[in-house]
Structure formats: structure tokens, C-alpha cells
Design goal:
The complex is a heterodimer of chains A (374) and B (229). In chain A, 66% of the residues lie in helices and 0% in strands. By secondary structure, chain A is mainly alpha-helical. Helix content of chain B is 79%, strand content 0%. The chains are: A mainly alpha (374), B mainly alpha (229). At the A-B interface, helix 6, helix 7 and helix 8 of A face helix 2 and helix 3 of B.
Chain lengths: 374, 229
């Protein structure tokens, strides 16, 4: 039997490869273009309704793009602000735009091309899945925060409680991440983070009870609407302070930056993570910050109520930006406290203060003062 | 298509329950227990019992499973691995079927107590579950003698648990209807508090006593172990 000449083989191979390639392209076009066209036609079927469409709300305004943008600006602002306060320059050159605002894009590209290192003795399924869960659970609370009665993705009758449900899942993920790394330092770091987050959930709940009591509803839109006359930060200032302090601890921001103390420990429970999983954790942390800032504004700072020359959503955006600025500015102003001090403050100071605030509110209600602010 | 949702939740919950019992790694078992709690709360969401669902998530998934996971991780896996028998296919199938049947029966009882039984799915469940139970017991008894006894105990345990669950639902339905959200936007907290104190006062008292007894029992057990050491 004569051997097939190599040239014929090459020709056949090329022909088959071309056909397969064209088939793949056709399949891709069929898979991508059809759904894309249907999404576009769905979006543009009624241009007047485009801005309040559920899809638009989920993807663009109170949803992913907006939250991502605020998180991006918060990361840049944190570096720049802390640098200015400490008389450094901070991000400067990247991108040629003022203030090195494209520095994060450069960092993102760098981190995307890094190798994802999975150490040998880790528990692989949990080690890989934990960052994904962290990202999803960190981003979920954004869904619940209303930016006005129209701009809310999920209007849930027990919104405050559901928000705390999502945030109470976070310690679970964190514990799994620390344990699956199979590293003493990661595990101890995750235990410290667990102590912090679990013990500061209690004052957070108790402080969030004050607006719920004042409104008589767990629905976040009702709570925002009830502050047309007086913001609840003026009615229940102790609760607002307790809530903000507990919020800083839940977000692991200064002065409660203990689990991931970047100048003392390596990175706490994040030690073994690198590349994209590390990115997912950091992004989850900042998205969570946007959600918590929105919740604080809705519960205590009047929500979308403001002067009439701007629509309510804009007031909400401005207030959230200010709260985020205050949260990130703590990095420049406060030292880090120790873990025993942290737990001491949480259990012996914040919880009694939150209970005291609730007692004061009950007293005011009995005296009939609260009827004036409604 | 509407039947797919409860069946999917049922499959998820049963799978998680079986994994929580049968998993060789304690940590994976604890995670599966968390998934099982999550599946239960999905059932409550499906039944529009929002308040119950939220507290199931907040207390059980958010706190209890974290506590269990924490304890398991801190204590660590036993250094000397207990040799677990490899289960045969028939025994496993029998256990799975009994678990499914038990959940079917419990669900059917729940839905009939809530007067939702007009649904065809639950009539199908009613006819299917005795057949499944029979099949499961036949499989269990013809299985290999070395394996089947453990599964028999487990099967009776699951059936007993589902009967206790059904009895609990019966007590609730005897005392009054389950507080429901019923699709309205407003959720009246005052009504909920009233019903908890008036209508379900007895039930809460009994549950409180049960919990107190459990707490005393736990303390007694811990003290006994300390004395032994």
C-alpha cells in the first residue's frame, strides 16, 4: 500500500480545519447574535421606559455599573486621600489623566495576567469556590438598597432583614477561605475576622432597629419616605453613631482593620490567595462598602429626601459618595486598635449604647414627642 | 413547569441532608448542613412565609452553621481516621428512596394542613410515596446483610423524623393558620406580635421549655465529661 504524500495530507487537513473553523464561527454567531439582538430589541422597544426598565436598573444604575464605578473611585480615592493627608503624592502617572485616576486599570491588568497559585495541600474545591461565593455574597446587598422609590432593583417587604441575611453569610465564606488554605496564619486570620464580624453584627442589628421602630416597617422604601420632615440621624443620634462604628468593623476599615492589617500581618485570611481570586475578594469588599453606605443613608441620612432642585436619585448618589468618602478617610486619620480592645468595645460599649438608644426612643414615644417628627 | 420549582428545592434539600449525614469529611458535612438549612428556607419562601424564611436564613444559615463549622474547624478532624464502610449501590438507593418518600409524605401532610392540596403534584405525591416506600423496604431487605442494618436504622429514623414534623404542623394547624404574607406589600408587625403572644402563646411556651431542657441537658453532659477527665 502506497503511503499518502504529505502534501495531500496537509491539504486535507487544511480543508477540514477551514470547514470546522467556519462551522464554529457560524455557531458562535448563532449563539451570540441572536440573544444580543433580542436583548437590544427588548431594551429599545419603548425608549421612554428604558431608564426605569428592570434590566437597566439591574445592570446600570443602582446595579452593577454604578456600584462598580463607585467602588473603583473609592479605591482610587482611598489611596489618593491617604497620600495627601500623609504628605505623599500617591497615584500620579498612570494614563496621563489628572491624579493618576487610571492607576487602578493598570493594577487590574497586572493582576489579571498574574498566575493563580493553588498551594499543594489546600482543599481545592473550597479554595477555588470561596472567592466566587465571596464575590456573589458581597454584591447581593446592592440589590436591596433603594436610590428612590422607582430606582430599586428588589423592593422586598422585609428589606432590612434580608440585607442582614446577606451580610451574615459573609463570615461563613471567610471561615471556609481561611480553613481551605491549610495555613496556620490564614486560619488564625480568618478566626480573627470571624470574631470581629460576628460580634459586630449584634450592635449593627440593634442600631438598625431604631429606624424600623420609628417607621413601623422593615421595607427600606417606607423608611426612606418617612424621613421627609426630619432625618432619623437627628431623632436617634446614638443609634446612628453605633451603626456607623459597627459598619466600619463589618467592612474591616480603619480603625477596625485588624483581620487584614496590611502593615503587621501578611494579609490575614487572604495570605494564600493571588491573582484573580484575590481580585474577587477585594472587589467584593468594596462593593459591600457601597451597599453599606447606601443602607446607612437610607436608614439615617434621609435617603432620597433633599431640596427640590435635584431629583431624589441625585441626592442619594451625593450622600452615598459623601459617606463613602468618610469611610475611606478613616485610613488616614485613625490608628489600628488591638483585637481585645475591639471585642471589648463591641460587647461592653456599643451594645449597651444601642439598647439605651432604643429605650430613649420608647420613652419619647410614650411622652408623645415622636408624633411631632412624623 | 410550576412543579419544577418545589421538586428542584426538594431534590436540593434531600441531597444536602444525605450529604450532611454521609459525608466523610466533617467540614463538608457541616457545609452540607448549611445547604440543608438553605433548602428549608427556600421552601418557606415558596410557601410565601417570608418572615419564617428570613429568620431561618438569619439564625440557621447565618449563625448556627457558622458555629458548627467553627467548632469542627477548631477541634479538627480526628487524627485516627475511623474506617467508614464503602456503601453498596443497593443500600444507598434504598436509603435515598426512603428519604425521598419521607419528605414526600411530610410535604403532603404540610400542604393538606394548609389546604393547598388541590394541586395535582401533591396528589401524585400521595399515590407515589407508598409505592416508593414499599420499593425502598424491599431493596433494604434484599440488600447485603452487612450493609443493610445501618440503612434500616437510618430509614426508620428519617420516617420517624418526618412523622414528628407532620405532628408539629398538625399542632400549628390545630391552633390556627400559619401567619402568611399573602402577597400584600405592607407587612404588619403589630399583628405578628399579637398573634405570637395570643394565638401561639402556648406553642412558644412549650418550645421554650423544650429549649431550656435541652440547654440543661447540654450543661449536664459537659459537666459529666469534665468530671471524668
Amino acid at each position: 500500500m502506497a503511503e499518502t504524500p504529505p502534501r495531500d495530507f496537509l491539504r486535507t487537513f487544511l480543508a477540514v480545519a477551514t470547514v470546522v473553523f467556519l462551522a464554529c464561527v457560524a455557531l458562535l454567531l448563532y449563539l451570540v447574535v441572536g440573544p444580543l439582538e433580542s436583548v437590544l430589541s427588548y431594551l429599545f422597544r419603548n425608549p421612554a421606559q428604558l431608564l426605569v426598565d428592570p434590566l437597566f436598573k439591574t445592570i446600570v444604575f443602582p446595579g452593577l455599573v454604578y456600584a462598580g464605578l463607585v467602588a473603583y473611585l473609592a479605591i482610587w480615592g482611598e489611596r489618593k486621600f491617604a497620600a495627601k493627608v500623609q504628605n505623599r503624592v500617591g497615584p500620579l502617572y498612570a494614563g496621563g489623566l489628572p491624579g493618576g485616576i487610571l492607576q487602578n486599570v493598570a493594577d487590574l491588568l497586572k493582576i489579571l495576567f498574574k498566575e493563580v497559585i493553588i498551594p499543594r495541600d489546600t482543599d481545592k474545591p473550597i479554595f477555588i469556590l470561596a472567592p466566587l461565593f465571596a464575590f456573589v455574597i458581597g454584591a447581593l446587598p446592592v440589590v436591596l438598597v433603594p436610590y428612590s422609590p422607582t430606582y430599586v432593583i428588589l423592593d422586598f417587604p422585609l428589606g432590612v432583614l434580608l440585607f442582614f441575611v446577606f451580610t451574615s453569610f459573609y463570615p461563613l465564606v471567610l471561615l471556609l477561605a481561611g480553613w481551605s488554605s491549610n495555613n496556620k496564619f490564614s486560619f488564625i486570620g480568618s478566626l480573627r475576622a470571624l470574631y470581629q464580624q460576628a460580634s459586630y453584627e449584634v450592635p449593627l442589628f440593634l442600631a438598625a432597629l431604631a429606624p424600623v421602630m420609628l417607621t413601623g416597617s422593615f421595607r427600606l422604601i417606607d423608611i426612606g419616605d418617612a424621613q421627609g420632615k426630619v432625618w432619623f440621624v437627628l431623632v436617634a443620634p446614638i443609634s446612628a453613631i453605633v451603626f456607623f462604628t459597627a459598619l466600619l468593623a463589618e467592612l474591616e476599615k480603619f480603625p477596625f482593620d485588624i483581620p487584614e492589617a496590611d502593615s503587621e500581618l501578611v494579609a490575614g485570611w487572604l495570605t494564600e490567595y493571588s491573582g484573580v481570586p484575590y481580585l474577587l475578594y477585594q472587589f467584593a469588599a468594596y462593593i459591600k462598602m457601597v451597599a453599606y453606605a447606601g443602607l446607612f443613608v437610607v436608614l439615617f441620612l434621609g435617603g432620597w429626601n433633599g431640596f427640590a432642585f435635584l431629583p431624589g436619585e441625585w441626592w442619594m448618589v451625593i450622600k452615598v459618595a459623601l459617606v463613602v468618602l468618610v469611610i475611606i478617610s478613616t485610613r488616614a486619620f485613625f490608628p489600628r486598635i488591638r483585637i481585645d480592645q475591639l471585642l471589648n468595645v463591641g460587647w461592653t460599649k456599643l451594645i449597651p449604647l444601642a439598647l439605651l438608644s432604643i429605650a430613649i426612643l420608647v420613652g419619647l414615644q410614650l411622652l408623645g414627642v415622636l408624633a411631632l417628627v412624623r | 413547569m410550576d412543579y419544577l420549582i418545589p421538586i428542584a428545592i426538594l431534590a436540593f434539600t434531600s441531597l444536602m441532608a444525605i450529604m450532611a449525614l454521609e459525608s466523610r469529611s466533617l467540614v463538608y458535612g457541616a457545609i452540607s448542613l448549611g445547604g440543608f438549612f438553605l433548602g428549608l428556607s427556600l421552601f418557606f419562601f415558596y410557601l410565601d412565609l417570608l418572615y419564617l424564611a428570613i429568620f431561618q436564613l438569619l439564625v440557621y444559615v447565618g449563625a448556627v452553621s457558622v458555629l458548627i463549622l467553627f467548632a469542627v474547624m477548631v477541634i479538627g478532624e480526628p487524627a485516627k481516621k475511623v474506617p467508614t464502610p464503602r456503601y453498596g449501590g443497593l443500600g444507598f438507593l434504598g436509603g435515598l428512596l426512603v428519604a425521598l418518600a419521607a419528605v414526600f409524605i411530610a410535604l403532603f401532610l404540610l400542604f393538606s394542613f394548609l389546604n393547598l392540596a388541590a394541586d395535582t403534584l401533591f396528589q401524585i405525591m400521595l399515590y407515589v410515596s407508598p409505592v416508593v416506600v414499599l420499593l425502598a423496604f424491599v431493596i433494604l431487605f434484599i440488600g447485603e446483610p452487612r450493609q443493610r442494618s445501618g440503612y434500616r436504622f437510618k430509614a426508620f429514623g428519617i420516617l420517624g423524623a418526618s412523622l414528628v414534623f407532620a405532628g408539629f404542623i398538625g399542632v400549628i394547624s390545630y391552633l390556627g393558620t400559619v401567619p402568611s404574607y399573602e402577597g400584600s406589600v405592607t407587612f404588619n408587625l403589630v399583628d405578628l406580635a399579637d398573634s405570637l403572644l395570643d394565638q401561639y402563646g402556648l406553642l412558644i411556651l412549650v418550645l421554650g421549655l423544650l429549649l431550656a431542657a435541652a440547654a440543661f441537658g447540654a450543661v449536664a453532659l459537659a459537666k459529666k465529661e469534665e468530671e471524668e477527665q
